[in-house]
Design a protein that fits this description.
- The protein is α/β, with parallel strands linked by helices.
- The protein has 16 helices and 15 strands.
- Helix 3 packs across helix 4.
- The protein is elongated.
- The chain binds ligand C2E and magnesium ion (2 copies).
- The site of one magnesium ion (MG) has 5 residues, from strand 11.
């Protein structure tokens, strides 16, 4: 059939137009769709970022944000520009426990806001977890930095100004000055944390304690780790030795007893004093095993003296505070004593006076149990801390050991003498025996001779010594010579 070109052309034109319109609509629809998806993506992204980079408790930055930004800032700045500070609130748990966690959260936000208001340009702050905050501060001078941190702590405690009953928030900070910006951020934070722990040990009592990281702390940690790895094997291999320090009775200058003091004969480092390992063992609980080991050595020695027909000397052992955490502390001791068949009155347990202060109830129970079995108990380090004379009348204690601080150089004056005299006199009236520890000078020993002091345990007569040396001195029948030099 024949169609006129005009008609056909019109139809084609209409179809092309339709196609163009439909295509454009589809393209537009697609574009709109893509835009929509993108928009919702970016909203989600923002929400996620908000979630990841914001701390819900303080409304400030999160750990993730802090880490990311700190790395950027550290890399971009010359070495030594920044210091990373790890900060926490001492005994924060108490606030949660006493006032509830809502109050705890409010306190954290308050602390955050006070610090945030004191940050300069290019500085960071975030709550990392619990009550731990991290700060990245411009370093400047060390003293300036320390002062800034002190001022923050003071500002935080300003709310107390209006209060009658004050609640001090003690802040502890560890500072790591970042000399090497390439150093891994985790390492830097770890160092700041380590310094913070050191700060807490340094001087409790003020509203702010601060310590700077030094390599020293790091090597100490490594050494401690090494000790922990070796301690069990060392105990099994008999590397712990018992030294005895004589307690000298002043009337005849004769040995009336001894205190057992532990030493560690390390194969590579030689003879280590207790200060090198006992604090660590008290932290990790190993001290319980060491104390029992020392006790067993002492029982074995007393058995030997009894078998040899010697007049046995009473020996005291130290009982770490760690023992008081468990209920049945007496059982393993009693088992050992029975095994060596040693009369309990030859054994004395020394408890340090801080135990009496921290946990008087537990101490009273322990004393009761030990006495029931016939052991003697003494209060060690009396006068070094919080002890009050009042405590003496409430505690059923057989002996007090006056701490060496009574006989230090600073205490050496008439006033010091009369304090010592009063304590000794009070103890005598309460029928408590007295041992004066850490006496180094003949003058002090002569002074004590004129008081009611029962025994002296100090370098003026003898240092702690190996058992064989002690036997020689104690069973020689001669008075113990006194040091001559002042
Ligand atoms: P501590 O129980 O108060 O023991 C007395 C410490 O004073 C001993 O130190 C002793 O050597 C020292 N000392 C005695 N006289 C003098 C003196 O005139 N001048 C001076 N400067 N020091 C004197 P050591 O042996 O280093 O022991 C330190 C502490 O370690 C002990 O204090 C005790 O608390 C703890 N310790 C020692 N052995 C053991 C143990 O087997 N178990 C436990 N739990 N603690 C122990
Ligand atoms: Mg002692
Ligand atoms: Mg002592």
């Amino acid at each position: 059939s024949v169609v006129p070109t005009e008609t056909a052309g019109r139809t084609v034109d209409r179809m092309i137009l339709l196609a163009v319109v439909v295509d454009s609509a589809i393209v537009l629809l697609f574009l709109a769709l893509i835009l929509l998806v993108k928009r919702s993506f970016s909203r989600q992204q923002k929400e996620l970022e908000q979630l990841a980079f914001c701390d819900p408790v303080t409304g400030g930055r999160s750990r993730a944000y802090f880490t990311r930004e700190a790395v950027k800032l550290l890399r971009a700045a010359p070495p030594g520009t920044y210091a990373l500070v790890s900060m926490d609130v001492e005994k924060f748990k108490l606030i949660n426990d006493t006032f509830g966690s809502e109050m705890g959260d409010k306190t954290l936000k308050f602390i955050h806001d006070v610090i945030a208001a004191r940050l300069g340009e290019g500085e960071l702050l975030a709550r990392i977890s619990g009550d731990v905050f991290k700060l990245l501060l411009k370093c400047g001078d060390r003293a300036v930095l320390e002062r800034r941190l002190g001022e923050m702590a003071e500002e935080i405690n300003r709310f107390n100004d209006k209060l009658q009953e004050k609640y001090l928030l003690t802040m502890a900070e560890g500072v790591c000055i970042v000399d090497d910006p390439q150093l891994d951020i985790v390492t830097i934070q770890g160092r700041a944390n380590e310094a913070r722990e050191a700060a807490k040990r340094s001087k409790p009592g003020s509203v702010n304690v601060c310590a700077f990281y030094t390599n020293d702390g790091r090597s100490r940690m490594l050494r401690e780790k090494e000790i922990e790895n070796r301690m069990e094997a060392a105990l099994a291999a008999g590397e712990f030795e018992v030294y005895l320090q004589p307690k000298v009775e002043l009337r005849w200058n004769s040995v009336a007893g001894a205190e057992a003091l532990v030493r560690w004969r390390d194969r590579t480092r030689g003879l280590l004093p207790p200060s090198e390992f006992i604090p660590l063992f008290e932290q990790n609980g190993f001290i319980v095993k060491v104390d029992l080991y020392v006790f067993e050595q002492v029982c074995r020695l007393l058995r030997k003296w009894l078998d040899e027909g010697k007049k046995p000397m009473p020996i005291s052992v130290n009982l770490s505070r760690v023992h008081l955490r468990s209920l049945d502390i007496l059982a393993p001791y009693d088992e050992i004593r029975a095994r060596y068949d040693v009369p309990p009155e030859l054994l004395e347990f020394e408890l340090t006076e801080t135990v009496a202060f921290e946990n008087a109830e537990a101490l009273r129970m322990v004393l009761g149990e030990f006495h029931q079995r016939g052991y003697r108990c003494s209060l060690d380090d009396f006068g070094s801390g919080y002890s009050s004379l009042n405590m003496l009348k409430d505690l059923n204690i057989d002996v007090i050991k006056l701490d060496r601080t009574f006989f230090s150089d600073e205490g050496e004056n008439d006033r010091g003498d009369s304090v010592v005299q009063s304590v000794l006199e009070l103890a005598r009236r309460l029928r408590i025996q007295t041992v004066c520890e850490g006496v180094e000078r003949p003058r002090q020993a002569e002074f004590l001779r004129r008081t009611s002091c029962d025994m002296v345990q100090g370098f003026v007569f003898a240092r702690p010594m190996p058992v064989a040396d002690f036997e020689e001195l104690a069973y020689s029948g001669k008075p113990v010579p006194m040091a001559q030099t002042e």
